[in-house]
Amino acid sequence: MTFDARPAPAPRPTASISPDLVFEAVLRGRRGASSDFDLNPHVLRPDAPAAPLRQAGVLCALVDRGDGAGLRVVLTRRADHLRKHAGQVAFPGGGLEAGDESLLHAALREAEEEIGLAPSGVEVVGEIDGHETVTGFAVTPFVGFIDPGFVARPDPGEVAEVFEPPLDFLMDPANHIRESRMYQGQRRFFYAMPWEGRYIWGATARMLVGLSERIASLSTGDEVGG
Q1: 4-48 per-position pLDDT tens digit
Q2: Digit-coded pLDDT (tens) for 156-205
């Protein structure tokens, strides 16, 4: 596949990203879901999808390892043998199942299954702006803090790797690169955040951009809903 880089957005004013700043940003409330079509107005979107969007919950888990890097975000690289989204970077989480009480329950259940993170080890702050994917998912991300002593135990059937890029890096608009690829004869644009040989892109990158905009609004005084 072919990727083309585009200029990153102009940097916004940023503040030191402390747990208190994250709490304030998350608790300001949701603005509404973003979509894969936001950067692709030229791509025709069906008026009515063939099937309802499948609901999914993911966990944006934050941890301070005490290494001077500040808060880090726990991300996974999906196993290469999976039928869908093989090898892609993602938050722990997955689709809502019959036994799930809520999307948060689904996110925490999947995090435990995928990386061994017990729900009792997560201090959930709240949900942030969701994202609708071209593959038919409506994803709701939840932000939570985890203990610095947490050691990931990835399930090899689902996860190839667990890694933790610094939140400061992911929240910096200078690192939010617009790239593109040819897909089914059309050029599709998306956000990407390459970090130490890992390629964070697509829905995961877009949800991180949403959190970055939320945090930036605290520095500029903008309303989250504006």
Answers
A1: 444 444 444 444 799 999 999 999 866 677 877 777 777 665 555
A2: 998 999 999 999 999 999 999 998 887 777 788 889 999 999 999 989 99
CB 193 within 8 A of CB 170: yes
Token readout for 101 is 């009480």
> What domains are there in the chain, each with its CATH number?
3-42+51-219 (3.90.79.10)
CB 124 within 8 A of CB 104: yes
In tens, the pLDDT along 96-115 reads 999 989 999 999 999 999 99
CA end-to-end distance (rounded Å), the chain: 36
Exposure of 149 in the CB half-sphere (CA atoms within 13 A): 1
DSSP 8-state symbol, 52: P
pLDDT tens digits, one per residue of 72-90? 999 999 876 766 665 689 9
Number of Cβ within a 10 Å radius of residue 153: 12
Give the position of tokens 């969701």.
130
Number of helical H runs and strand E runs in the chain: 4, 14
Q: Residue 153: is its pLDDT beyond 90?
A: yes
Give exposure, 54-84, as e/b (b: 16+ Cβ within 10 Å): ebbbbbbbbbbeeeeebbbbbbbbbbeeeee
